[in-house]
Design a protein that fits this description.
The chain folds into two domains: about 170 residues, NAD(P)-binding Rossmann-like Domain (Rossmann fold); about 120 residues, Orthogonal Bundle (N-(1-d-carboxylethyl)-l-norvaline Dehydrogenase, domain 2). The protein has 13 helices and nine strands. The chain is about 50% helix and about 10% strand.
Amino acid sequence: MTEQDNERKLGWLGTGRMGSELVRRLLAADCDVSVYNRTKAKAEPLAAAGAKIVDSAAGLAAADIVFVTVGTSQDLIDALTGPDGLLSSGAAPAIVVDCSTISAEASEQVRQQLDVRGATLLAAPVMGNPKVARSGGLTLAVSGPRAAFDTARPYLKLLGAGATYVGEGELARIVKLCHNLFLGVVIQSLSEVTILAEKSGVSRQAFLACLNDSVMGSAFTRYKTPALVNLDFSATFTAELLRKDFDLGLAAAREREAPLPVAALVHQLVQSLVGHGFGQADFAALLTLQAQSAGLELVSENADVSDGLGPLDANGTKDAVR
């Protein structure tokens, strides 16, 4: 990072589970970061790590670059253009980097409001959950003006394993929706074959260990293994949020006349998961619905298995996180 990069003032709007992890990565790199969260208590722990807490979203407008992590399209609109939003004082940062998963329409609405103020929006949705962010494995798809991406790139690189520029406008939104559609399809398929193996007499731990060591294993199958083996569905990404992304993704597919027959079926299974009371549980709880369909009663295997998300060791490989 150049001396000029170090002198830039950063802001972060939205310090929930994901935002907090990403702010900590910037602070660890000695970046100057001011933060705001609607619920102030969620931002206060960051002060001990070196963040400056401001009392309003508008208090971040003096920053050079402001990052945003919020939950929904309306949250982004309110956080930036609402009466108490980032732009409410009339001032604006040079660049706003939105890391949320929202609709392209909402993103374009915000982009226009920023353009009027001479500011630039980068759509930069993140791919990964807070645990992945903590381990440094997060990736980002980024779209918008190339010059703004080049300016923000040193900080985007600090957030995780890589930031890919995918083009102008809202193209990053489509990339993220495609990613999360695939995420849902994969966890459903993984649940199906895991239940088949268990009903045949193979423990979930043994089956997933074999799968993870094969060519079909991935970072995703490995970091979901503890949840599937031990039935710990503490949310890293809730079923309700996955349903939201399927709603957005399928709407984009209809607009483009691109059939998604497998994703459409998984959408209904995610809806069923929410309907069964798992809306705030991790989306890996799809395993429970698959077990019910197979007439199988699941119990935790209480096994000590790695999620594969440990920090890099001296050899550049991942240490196990238990």
